UniProtKB/TrEMBL annotation:
EC number, as in UniProt: 2.7.4.9
UniProt keyword Transferase present: yes
Thymidylate kinase-like domain residues: 7-190
Organism: Rhodococcus chondri
Catalyzed reaction equations: dTMP + ATP = dTDP + ADP
Function statement: Phosphorylation of dTMP to form dTDP in both de novo and salvage pathways of dTTP synthesis.
Record-linked NCBIfam families: PRK07933.1
Protein name: Thymidylate kinase
Family: Belongs to the thymidylate kinase family.
Pfam families: Thymidylate_kin
CDD domains xrefs: TMPK (cd01672)
Catalytic EC class: transferase
Entry keyword set: ATP-binding, Kinase, Nucleotide biosynthesis, Nucleotide-binding, Transferase
Encoding gene per record: tmk
Domain of life from the UniProt record: Bacteria
Length: 221
């Protein structure tokens, strides 16, 4: 059984770039690595409905914090069997976002901190009721809000299919979400957490992660 590792962070933090670097580093050592990104746009009807709502469609869906959270949670529930198969067939499964992103954004939209009811509600829904696999390690890619926003703007200019949504345009929401992420990492919510910065070297981080998990999970061969 493989280990489940998650990269978390704000929109525009650079999760995709860091994930690609980690995969390259691990595969170079002979490990088998599978990847999955949430939300699964273009694959999951729930993810697509959520994305459309954040761009003004489907009436007042986007204004309902719980409705949006449930769409993201249902996307993961539908991927649970595939995720378990990936874990059975690979040494490492690396996710670009997972349940913690739902906890962070839902709490931030409510103006709650990590101790508020939103985080516990997300935990109960996704890990309790939907029985999603718990992560073995979560990595918070922490970058300044202004840098993440600039990256998101640059990405939108370069790729018309990745235009910024309501969440990405709300600097206040991004700031609050970052604060909840920090608290989740400090509390090691649902797993051990480590924090990486915007200039983190992917190869060095891959070695650090493997060393952290080696004793308990057998990441290295």
């Amino acid at each position: 059984m493989g280990v489940l590792i998650v990269i978390e962070g704000l929109d525009g933090a650079g999760k995709r770039t860091l994930s690609a670097g980690l995969v390259e580093a691990w595969r170079a050592t002979g490990l088998t690595v599978a990847t999955l990104a949430f939300p699964r746009y273009g694959v999951s009807v729930h993810a697509d409905l959520g994305a459309e709502a954040l761009r003004g469609r489907h009436g007042d869906t986007a204004s309902s914090i719980e409705a949006m959270a449930l769409l993201w949670a249902l996307d993961r529930r539908d991927a649970a069997d595939d995720l378990r198969k990936l874990l059975a067939d690979n040494d490492i499964v690396l996710l670009d976002r997972y349940v913690a992103s739902n906890a962070a954004y839902t709490a931030a939209r409510h103006g709650q901190d990590v101790s508020g009811p939103a985080v516990e509600w997300i935990r109960e829904i996704e890990f309790g009721r939907f029985v999603l696999p718990a992560p073995d390690l979560q990595v918070l890619l922490r970058v300044p809000v202004a840098l993440a926003a600039e990256r998101a703007r640059t990405r939108a200019v370069a790729d018309a299919t990745r235009d910024r949504d309501v969440y990405e345009r709300d600097a206040g929401l991004q700031t609050r979400t970052g604060e909840v992420y920090d608290a989740l990492a400090e509390r090691h919510w649902m797993s051990r957490w480590i924090v990486a910065g915007p200039d983190t070297d992917a190869q060095q981080l891959a070695v650090r992660i493997s060393n952290l998990l080696h004793d308990g999970e057998g990441v290295t061969r």
